[in-house]
Fold this sequence. Notes:
Elements: H1 7-18, E1 37-42, H2 53-62, E2 67-74, E3 77-78, H3 84-91, E4 96-103, H4 108-120, E5 126-130, H5 138-152, E6 158-161, H6 174-177, E7 185-186, H7 192-195, H8 199-210, E8 220-222, H9 229-241, E9 246-250, H10 257-264, H11 289-300, H12 313-325, H13 336-342, E10 351-353, E11 356-358, H14 387-391
Parallel strand pairs: 1-2, 1-9, 2-4, 4-5, 5-6, 6-7, 8-9
Antiparallel strand pairs: 2-3, 10-11
Helix pairs in contact: 4-5, 9-10
Amino acid sequence: MVRRRTLALALALAALMxxxxxxxxxxxxxxxxxxxxxxxxxxxxNRSSRGNLAAIGRRAVSRGIDMVVIKAADGTRAWRQFxxxxxxxxxxxxxxxxxxxxxxGRRPRTEARVGAGVVARGAGCLLLDAEGTYEGRYAQAQTYxxxxxxxxxxxxxxxxxxxxxVSFHPAFPYSVFLGPGGAQFNVPQMxxxxxxxxxxxxxSVTYRYNRPYQRPIYxxxxxxxxxxxxxxxxxxxxxxxxxxxxVSWWDWQESGARDWxxxxxxxxxxxxxxxxxxxAGLRRGWRGDLVVWAQEHLRAAGQQIPIxxxxxSGTLAAVLSFQAAHGLPPTGRIDSATWxxxxxxxxxxxxxxxxxxxxVAASARASSSARSGPPSxxxxxxxxxxGSRGRRR
Length: 393
């Protein structure tokens, strides 16, 4: 059985032993990883143990929670519940404290300034809660990240907390948020009960579709909607099986006594479980950000194709040429073997603006309300699997 105090060690050992195909993880600098171990998210402080910091600290310690992620900003507005005093008080209980900002993309430079303010108030890391409002806004995402990094530096730990199902959101700029200069780690909102799938399904889909971005994945599970304790245990077991170095839970104010017990309960690792391997495959007819990501790597490998987000005849020819040059079976599909070869090349740097890519050229300019980026940025979402929950966070 895995005890609470040794869970972080178990997660770390699993990551080393299993080494799932996530590519090389970018360095986060010295010290513990900000999302390692077990975490709990706090949306509204006054509804989480009534905002009593001592009660929050005691409950977290008693339930083996290593870190908390507190809402610190909503777009261009800082939240008063996240202060240096809150951070220092919770740290005195041995907790790591991060802040999160829900971002909209309407005023990305101002949002970046507010995000940098979260860092200045003592956050150990910054989580970007980017959801439907950022679909189709590639230039705005670049503007936000460039402005943010100019203020906080290139190595400060930033994570993306967004939709887990990449294929449902072809216009979402994952390739910007998780690309060079973006977030160093990925915290997908894997709310299996809200989405209506099993715990096993949410893991297999999320990992296969997020692995190509080569960022460490820290699963964000749910205690809201009060899932059965067996589901929470399974989520924790699969985190270890998939090699995650930490898990966290949404959210404090909506968790009951049964949920807290399930989060803290010892569990047995799945010794004979084989996690889903490889990457989501792409073929002719596919469209969306994963195609954008593949096209950026194909260009880096010498294939002169436009970055459109559409897998059409030109991309098919480029894939066949790439496969021939690398001794791969000429399938014309970007399968796991082809992804492995492609991801050895760093993506071609792209500056997005309204409607097209400029490869290392003019600055990204787009109105706050306009869609920008590749042609695929105009596509609509297949489904908002997070529903209204995401829009009121």
